[in-house]
Amino acid sequence: MAPHALLIPLPAQGHINPMMQLAWKLVSHGFLITFLNSDSTHNRIHKANTLNSFFDNIRMISVPFEFPPLDSLEGIENRIESLIKGMGPSVIDKVIQEINAREEENKVTCIIADVWMCFGLQAVATLHELPLAAFHTALVSLFAIRYFSAHLVSLGILHSDGIPKEDKKTKYLPCMPALHSGDLPWL
């Protein structure tokens, strides 16, 4: 029995392709992949026929979800709320139940979700006794600096709102080159 990963990208530009590249890499190591998407993204991928020879081991499924249009920054709350309703924990729980009900030999063995899709998924993973991994689709340096931002605040390098205390080039983390304060990802 091959390991079976349920991959859940954020259904947005810049998130699906890196997750698909991870899927291809996992397939090359013997995994079966179920790749969950929104209906419109699912249809665009199939229309483009971009799955090549790995198609047999990558199963594309979708749920009826679409982001509402983003007219302004005030619309972000509506988009997050619709994302939770359309692709949140209750939907993922149902997807896993459906897959496992029809797959006697290939039940889901792990969940890999875009870091922005992990809200509430630990409870679902625990319920199904599955490991959950968060996948960050952007540069690892962006993840590192976000991850250590609280530490940078405690060191006195950043204010509690994330704004650097000095407007100069600074080595924020030992693993990264010095950055100008304006290069921080949230500024």
From TrEMBL:
<feature type="domain" description="Glycosyltransferase N-terminal">
    <location>
        <begin position="7"/>
        <end position="50"/>
    </location>
</feature>
<dbReference type="GO" id="GO:0080043">
    <property type="term" value="F:quercetin 3-O-glucosyltransferase activity"/>
</dbReference>
<dbReference type="InterPro" id="IPR058980">
    <property type="entry name" value="Glyco_transf_N"/>
</dbReference>
<protein>
    <recommendedName>
        <fullName>Glycosyltransferase N-terminal domain-containing protein</fullName>
    </recommendedName>
</protein>
<dbReference type="Pfam" id="PF26168">
    <property type="entry name" value="Glyco_transf_N"/>
</dbReference>
<dbReference type="GO" id="GO:0080044">
    <property type="term" value="F:quercetin 7-O-glucosyltransferase activity"/>
</dbReference>
<comment type="similarity">
    <text>Belongs to the UDP-glycosyltransferase family.</text>
</comment>
